[in-house]
Amino acid sequence: MFSRLTKLGLVAAVSATAQFISATAQSNESSNDPVYVFNRICYAQVPNIQGIRNMALQLAWKQMGGEDLARFTKLKDPKVLEGWDAQVGERLFRVGVVQSDVPPAMQARFPDFAKGVSTSCSIVLDEEHKADAVAKNMQALAGKEPVSRDVADGDLLTTTWAGGNAEFKVFLVAKLSSDGAGGLLNVTILSKESGS
Length: 196
What we know:
- With about 200 residues, the chain is an alpha+beta fold.
- Helices cover about 35% and strands about 35% of the residues.
- It contains 6 helices and 8 strands.
- The chain has an 8-stranded antiparallel sheet with strand order 1-2-3-4-8-7-6-5, with helices on one face.
- Strand 6 and strand 7 form a beta hairpin.
- Helix 1 crosses helix 6 and helix 2 crosses helix 6.
- It starts with a helix and ends in a 5-residue tail after the last strand.
């Protein structure tokens, strides 16, 4: 299943990555661009969480635990909950991976995926990441208009892109601070079978 999913998603990922690279090619500090980092660590890997684990091991990311890790999910018993503080260039990015059964609300919305797996990867942004630049680069990464834009969620504004096909559903989310700095980037993929 994973190789079929990879083949199906490869065309979309290559297209999105090409558009994103084109949009950020002028930046000499792409490793410090949170959307570039998010693309490399999360978007290009999920649902293959082993790829993220391998990066964490090879690049000696510091494993996270306790309350910091628990913040990445509201689920009581996910199958996988892992997180790291990832040093990229001179910046530190907090990365979290969650894998679980498809949540009930998503099962109701996508009944064909009711017995499937939900895999997500998130990167927390600090206050040095400016929301307007992040929003522009996320739009370039998504390569299409969002299904919702700037929906208020406390002091965050949430923008969501959605896509996929009969084998998987992809949700790309930017939760950016309404004061213009910081937030969170997330990709969640529902697959009919496990992708780990």
